[in-house]
Amino acid sequence: MENGVRLSVIIPAHDEAPLIGATLDVLAHSTAWLGDGVEIIVVDDASSDGTGAIARARGARVLPVALRQIAAVRNAGAAAARGDRLLFVDADTLANPEVVIALMDAMDRGAVGGGVGVRFIRPLPLHMRIFESVSILLFRLAGVTPGCFLFCTREAFDAVGGFDESLYVTEDVRFGRALRHVGRVAILREQVYSSARKMRTYSLGEKIRFLLRFLVAPGRVARDRARLELWYGPRRHDEVETRQREPD
User: Fold this and answer.
1) How many CB atoms lie within 10 A of CB 133?
2) What is the pLDDT of residues 3-39, one digit of tens each?
3) Smallest Cα–Cα separation from 192: which of 131, 236, 149?
4) What is the pLDDT of residues 223-236, one digit of tens each?
5) Cα-flanking dihedrals φ and ψ of residue 48, to 5°?
6) What helix, strand, coil percent values describe the chain, rounded to 5?
7) Please, is 182 exposed, middle or buried when counting C-beta atoms within 10 Å of its C-beta (0-12, 13-18, 19+)?
8) Which among 74, 73, 41 has a CA at the least distance from the CA of 60?
9) Residue 119: strand pairing partners
């Protein structure tokens, strides 16, 4: 632990101005009990919309990069972190105090890392409300660690070599599986809320076509950013989201 930092929170962000302010405000409230034992690092990945300025105004440490690959961005944040415990939070995810307390407790009791159940911020189409409930159950049974809120010790992160930078998606699942070779992985009962923007800005047909393409060739698709518009495309925000979480 360097300079008394117990927890380093790493937030990868690309053009997240409509969201990053609210995300950081909630995170500041949820980690206040740690006092000076927490640092917030926003890894600003080639943003063009003031994401970095909003983060700095809220006291976050901003690390500018130009990588456009989520695994590499998370690894860059981890390399700059000073804490002996790492928490990766997506820029569209709200972390409540209970979940932060629970993850610290889990690592106090020997877990090398873990994840949580993820719910989506409403409004949400019916098919996605069904998907949400089913995925929480299946992810818990399978021990999946969603990347929007994933934690680990520095020692475990180094032991597995960080996130696999050959992958543009599913790097979080691969990372969680690797952690299991190091020690116990905890899937917390507490849950976080994440943006449903991908569910609203892409039609059901588009999502089904992507799913089918991924199922046919998961390894090839996960390594090809050109096939991953759902994650890396320009449709990042919608009217509902911007109205609900307007930045200062």
Assistant:
1) 12
2) 788 999 999 999 999 999 999 999 999 999 999 999 9
3) 149
4) 877 776 766 666 55
5) -125, 15
6) 50, 20, 30
7) middle
8) 41
9) 193
